[in-house]
Design goal:
The chain is mainly α. The chain has one domain (about 10-340): Hypothetical protein af1432 (Orthogonal Bundle). It has 17 helices and no strands. Helix 5 packs across helix 9 (about 180-200). The model has no long low-confidence stretch (mean pLDDT about 95).
Length: about 350
Amino acid sequence: MLGANNFMTIREQVEMREKEYLSPYASLSMNSIGRDIEEEQCDIRPVYQRDRDRILHSKSFRRLKDKTQVFLTPEGDHYRTRLTHTLEVSQNARTIAKALCMNEDLVEAIALGHDLGHTPFGHAGERALDRICPLGFSHNEQSVRLVEILEKGGRGLNLTYEVRDGIRNHKTATKPCTLEGEIVRLSDKIAYIHHDMDDAIRGKILEEKDIPKELRNTLGKTTTERLDRLIHDIITSSEEQNDIKMSVEIGQAFTDLRQFMFQNVYQNPKAKGEESKAERLVESLYEYYLCHLELLPKELTRLIEEQDERHERVVCDYVSAMSDRFAIGKFSEIYLPDSWKE
C-alpha cells in the first residue's frame, strides 16, 4: 500500500512487517474491526499501539497507583498496588506474546487497560458497589465504560473493538475474541497468584512450607520458580496452535494453587479482616452522593442531564473512580466532625 507521496508511511511498513512475521493466528493491526468513531490513521503507530498510548496517558491509569491490590494499607513500601499488578500482567503477557509471535501491542493495550475500572480498596469496594447499586457493578464492565464514555471529559478514548473486547472479557467466566485477549486473561491470573503469594509471605500470613508439597514439586519451590514454570508451560502448550492454554498437569496444579490461595489468603481474616470497614465506607459514599447529585463533577452530571443516565450508575462512576486516599478523605470530610480531624 502506498501513501499519498507514493511511499509507505511508517505505520504501513510496521503493518507489513506484522503480516510477514506474526503467527497466522495473531491479530494483525491492519485487520482490526476498528473504532466506534472513525478517525484518521496515525502515520507512525498502528491502531493497537495507539490504543496502548491512550490508556497509558489516561487519568484512570494514573489513579491505579493508589488503589488496593489485596492488602489494605499494608506497612511497607514493597506491597503491590493495582498499578504494579497491571504492570506485572503486562510484562507476563508480552513475554508470552513475543514467544508465540502474537501481537504485542494488542496484548499490552489490553493488559494496561484491564483494571482501569477497579474501585478503591480492591475487590472489597467492588463487592460493596455491586451489593448496594440496583444496577450491579463489575470492574471489567466499568473499565470498558471508562474508555468508551467517561475518559477525556465524556469523549472516551475511542479504542479499537479488539482492545475493548479483551478488557471486558479478562475474567475467568468470559472468553475474549482474540488470542491476545486470552493471553492477558491467563497472565492476569498468573500475576495475581504469584504476587499475592509473595506479598502474603512478606506479610507473614503464609510461609513457603505452608504450600502443599505436591504443588511445590509440580510448580516450583519459590514464587520465582512457579512464575517461570507457568509461563514456560503456556508457551510450550500453545505453540503453533489456535489456542492459549496450559498443559493438563500444570493447569490442574495451578487451579489447586489458586484454591489454596482463596482458602489461606483471600478469605483469611488476618489478611482481609478490615475489608468490611472498607465496604461500609464505600457504601456510605454511594448513599451520600446519591442524595447529593449536585456535588458530582460537571462531566458526570451532564450524563444525567443530557444523556438521561441512571443516577445510580453515575454515582458508581464517581465512587469507583476514587483512589483509596481520596475515598478516605471524602468520607472524613463528609462524616467526621472537624474537631476530630486535627
